[in-house]
Amino acid sequence: MTTSLKGKVALVTGASRGIGRGVALGLGEAGATVYVTGRTLDGRSTRMPFLGGSLQETARDVTALGGHGVAVQCDHTNDAQTKAVVDRVREEHGRLDVLVNNVWGGYEGLHLWDERGEKWSAPFWEQPTSVWDDMFTSGVRAHYVTSQLAAPLLVEAKGLIVGISFFAAMRHKDTENIPYFLAKSLSDRMASAMANHLRPHGVTSVALYPGLVRTEGVLLAPEGAFDFTNSESPQFIGRAVAALASDPRVFEKTGQVLVAAELGEAYGFADIDGKRSTSQRADWQG
């Protein structure tokens, strides 16, 4: 299939780096106008400077790939700032075709390796309560509020909402982080529930699982921590979103949990290195 999003407008939250940046690039190479949000407008993050990445860099790269990148600084824990982003999209384009809810504070403790990271796999009563807040305030709630504010524009465009989730939602094991499992599970359920409300309006809502993604944080892990044999670039996830957004029959998938690797097989796109990862669904369903 031909992946062309020329004339389409997208909003990707949490796009300074990582999966959000990759999603923006994937939409950019398909020709979309992509609004990218996050806290790091330019330079380096004051909280995690070792990760690098900024909105201005992402926007420039989106434009270089053939789209049009627009950097908008936004802390998505602040509803007024989120509203200002959506209002700007409405004022400048009058439409929104794709919303990708990616912003996520849940991994911050792992990146900083503070008490949250050190106790990631500890029993829940030994973890700081801030782990819950990272997952839900800077994650699930931010996704809900952004969707709520953007819904009228998406209804007008019969658009697409993609919530970035993960396989951890499928089952909980004795060493899994409980807030993480619950947050990802809720993200999946939220995509399904929003699909119910949006179905009469022709808007598609899905959850999307990446596999092991070679983000800046993952690549900083100690040698041997990850087996990258079956891994993905962040841009591969963007190609999955672009394929969905350009599919005239995407509405048939509304309410579903989708896997980027499976979409690669279905739509026939590869990663930036020409490879295709395989789905981890069977591993997690166990």
From TrEMBL:
SUPFAM superfamilies: NAD(P)-binding Rossmann-fold domains. This is NAD(P)-dependent dehydrogenase (Short-subunit alcohol dehydrogenase family). The lineage of its organism: Bacteria, Thermotogati, Deinococcota, Deinococci, Deinococcales. It comes from Deinococcus yavapaiensis KR-236. It comes from the Bacteria. Coiled coil: none annotated.
